[in-house]
Amino acid sequence: MDKIFLRELKVETIIGFWEWERRLKQVVSIDLEIGTDARIAAACDGIAGTLNYEQLAKRLLEFVGESKYQMVETLATAVGRIVVAEFGAPWVKVSVAKPGAIPKAREVGVVIERTAADYA
């Protein structure tokens, strides 16, 4: 299976369950791997044959920027739903990281993998 990827999409959002986290926006970093059949885009050499990752990035920047989840797991699941349900991907791997959330660690986060059946 072919993949489209998006790395280190940085978004400021409300994320976390501690009281101070509910008051301050934090940066999260999102990585995506999205299932696709690249042969379709390659055959027509046009955007009509593939997922428009520019539109996807804009959608995620808006959605995540306005979200107020407590858990990165919930945010990752919501991001996966957008990729699959709105952009028609057969499957997605979503990583959501909170840089600097743990002292002496670069980042902490979660990785999920979902298919269209998971959101049916």
Structure description:
It is a single chain. This protein is of the alpha+beta class and 120 residues long. It is 34% helix and 38% strand. Helix 3 packs antiparallel against helix 4 (72-86). 20% of the residues are buried.
Average the pLDDT over all residues and give the rounded result: 95
Superfamily at the CATH H level? Answer: GTP cyclohydrolase I, C-terminal domain/NADPH-dependent 7-cyano-7-deazaguanine reductase, N-terminal domain
CATH topology (fold) name:
GTP Cyclohydrolase I, domain 2
Percent of residues in β-strands: 35-45%
Q: Which class of secondary structure composition applies to the elements?
A: alpha+beta
- The 3D shape can be described as elongated
The helix/strand series, from N terminus to C terminus, equals: EHEHHEHEE
The CATH architecture term is 2-Layer Sandwich
Count every helix, treating DSSP H or I runs of 4 or more residues as helices: 4
* Number of domains as seen in the coordinates: 1
| Spatial arrangement of strands, main beta sheet | 3-1-2-4-5
For this entry, what is the oligomeric state of its chains? single chain
Helix content: 25-40%
Q: How many DSSP E strands?
A: 5
Q: What is the first-to-last residue Cα distance?
A: 21 Å
Please report the first level of CATH classification, the CATH class: Alpha Beta
Rounded to an integer in angstroms, the radius of gyration calculated over CA atoms is 15 Å
